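Archive maintenance. Older records in this collection stored only the sequence; we are now back-filling the structure field for every entry so that each record is complete. The fields below show one back-filled record exactly as it appears after the update. Entries are processed alphabetically, and DUF4212 domain-containing protein is next in the queue.

ARCHIVE ENTRY
Title: DUF4212 domain-containing protein
Organism field: Leucothrix pacifica
Length field: 84
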Amino acid sequence: MSSENNSLYWQANVRLMIMCLVVWFVVSFGCGLLLVDVLNNFQLGGYKLGFWFAQQGSIYVFLFLVFFYAFRMNQLDKKFNVQE
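Back-filled structure field:
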């Protein structure tokens, strides 16, 4: 892998990680703490939505992000020809 190709691969990887971390932060901190009062006006399964995000929603989003990251990294690996 050339130095330029290696740099492009790393930039794509970092961009993907930052995107996933921003989504995780917004959901866990934003929806679970900052917007809890606004979200509590809605209900999901009999529970207030703010409570649900603080207790369950951020975990589900985190699990989704793990699988999304793995899927996208496999695509990046194939694109840059570094797959296993």
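Update note: Residues 36 and 50 are 4 Å apart (CA to CA). The first helix runs from residue 3 to 34.
Entry marked complete.
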